[in-house]
C-alpha cells in the first residue's frame, strides 16, 4: 500500500525545483515533509497528485506506476485552496463525496461525522465564504477526507491555524493514519510535525537531505551530549579525558563525550563518588536536526518573489 516517490526531477526554465527526489510514504504512518520556502515541497506534491508532470522519475502506488484511476482515490489539500464559496459547508462535503461515487447515505454520514469531529457543527449550513479562514481550512481538510481516501497528500494543512484548531486536525489525521492509509503533509511548523509525524522527509534546494523515522533521525543526530544530576560536586568532570563540560553547577553538569564508552565511564565514576539522581542523553529537537541537515544548503534556496508572496 506504500506510495513512493522515485527519482523525481522537475525544472522550471532551466532552474531545478526538484532534483532526483526519492522517498516512501508508508501506510499507517504520518510522514512530515519539511523544507524552507521554495525548497520543492509543493512541486513534489503536485507531481504526486498529477497536476504537474515530472521531467524524470515516477510515482508508484502499491509497487506499480500510479495511474489516474488510483489517484482519484486520494484525498488532497492543495496549496491554493479550491472550494465553492457560495455552497454551504455540509452540502459541499456531500457533493464531493458523491462525486467520488459514494452512496447518498454514506456521503451524508461521512460529511456529518467530519463536521462534528472538526468542530464545525454550528457552521454546517453556512456558505464557505462566510466561514473564518481557520474554519475554511478545517472545511478543506474535511473535503480531503470525506470520500474515505486511500492516501492523503496535504500541503500546509496547519498554516494559519490556532493551536486548538491544530490539535483538532491532528486528532482527525492520527485517526485516519491508524486506519492504515499513507499520509504526507508539508508544514513549516516543526513543533507540530515533531508531535504528529512518525516519519520525516527533509528537502532543501530540491534535494532530499534526510528521510526516515523521527526517532531514528533523532538518534542519528543526537551527538553525545548528556545531563547528569549527582549527589556530589561534579567539578572533577573537567579533568576527564574525552569529555567537554558545557555547563557545570555544583552537582549538575551537561557534557559532551568523544564516545559512548566515555559517557559510561563518567557514570561509573560518578556512582563511585556518591548517588546519581539522573543521567540522560540529550535528544535533539526536530528544529535542531533540521538546522543540522540544511545548514550547508539553506541560504540560496529562497526566491525573493515567492518569499514575499508567502509572507503576505
Ligand atoms: N510554476 C512555476 N514556475 C516557475 N517556477 C516555479 C513554479 N512552481 C515552483 N517554482 C519554483 O520551484 C522552486 C520550488 O518551489 P515549491 O513551491 O515547490 O517550494 P515549497 O517548498 O513548496 O515552498 P514554500 O514552502 O515556500 O511553499 C522555487 O524556486 C519556485 O520558485
Automatic annotation (TrEMBL):
Its main location: membrane. Transmembrane segments: none annotated. Keywords: Antibiotic resistance, ATP-binding, Nucleotide-binding, Transport. The keyword Transport applies. One of its GO terms (molecular function) is ATP binding. Residues 3-230 form the ABC transporter domain. InterPro entries: AAA+_ATPase (IPR003593), ABC_transporter-like_ATP-bd (IPR003439), ABC_transporter-like_CS (IPR017871), ABC_transporter_ATP-binding (IPR050763), DrrA1/2-like_C (IPR025302), P-loop_NTPase (IPR027417). It is a peripheral membrane protein. Pfam families: ABC_tran, DrrA1-3_C. It is found in: Cell membrane. Gene3D superfamilies: P-loop containing nucleotide triphosphate hydrolases (3.40.50.300). Belongs to the ABC transporter superfamily. This is ABC transporter ATP-binding protein. It comes from Schaalia naturae.
Amino acid at each position: 500500500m506504500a506510495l513512493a516517490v522515485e527519482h523525481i526531477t522537475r525544472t522550471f526554465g532551466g532552474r531545478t525545483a526538484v532534483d532526483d527526489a526519492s522517498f516512501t510514504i508508508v501506510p499507517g504512518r504520518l510522514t512530515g515533509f519539511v523544507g524552507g520556502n521554495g525548497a520543492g515541497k509543493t512541486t513534489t506534491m503536485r507531481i504526486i497528485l498529477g497536476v504537474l508532470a515530472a521531467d524524470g522519475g515516477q510515482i508508484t502506488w502499491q509497487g506499480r506506476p500510479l495511474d489516474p484511476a488510483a489517484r482519484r482515490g486520494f484525498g488532497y489539500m492543495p496549496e491554493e485552496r479550491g472550494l465553492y464559496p457560495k455552497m454551504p459547508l455540509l452540502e459541499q462535503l456531500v457533493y464531493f463525496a458523491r462525486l467520488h461515487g459514494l452512496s447518498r447515505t454514506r456521503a451524508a454520514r461521512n460529511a456529518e461525522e467530519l463536521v462534528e469531529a472538526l468542530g464545525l457543527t454550528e457552521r454546517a449550513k453556512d456558505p464557505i465564504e462566510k466561514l473564518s479562514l481557520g474554519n475554511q481550512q478545517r472545511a478543506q481538510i474535511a473535503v480531503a477526507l470525506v470520500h474515505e481516501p486511500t492516501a492523503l497528500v496535504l500541503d500546509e494543512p496547519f498554516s494559519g491555524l490556532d493551536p486548538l484548531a491544530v490539535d483538532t486536525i491532528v486528532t482527525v489525521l492520527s485517526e485516519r493514519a491508524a486506519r492504515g492509509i499513507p499520509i504526507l503533509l508539508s508544514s513549516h511548523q516543526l513543533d507540530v510535525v515533531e508531535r504528529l509525524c512518525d516519519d520525516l522527509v527533509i528537502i532543501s534546494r530540491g534535494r532530499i537531505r534526510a528521510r526516515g523515522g523521527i526517532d531514528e533521525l533523532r538518534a542519528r543526530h543526537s551527538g553525545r551530549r548528556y545531563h547528569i544530576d549527582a549527589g556530589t560536586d561534579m567539578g572533577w568532570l573537567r579533568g576527564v579525558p574525552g569529555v567537554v563540560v558545557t555547563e557545570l553547577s555544583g552537582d549538575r553538569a551537561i557534557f559532551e563525550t568523544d564516545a559512548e564508552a566515555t559517557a559510561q565511564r563518567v557514570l561509573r565514576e560518578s556512582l563511585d563518588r556518591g548517588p546519581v539522581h539522573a543521567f540522560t542523553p540529550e535528544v535533539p529537537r526536530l528544529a535542531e536536526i533540521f538546522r543540522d541537515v540544511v545548514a550547508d544548503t539553506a541560504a540560496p534556496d529562497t526566491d525573493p518573489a515567492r518569499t514575499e508572496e508567502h509572507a503576505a
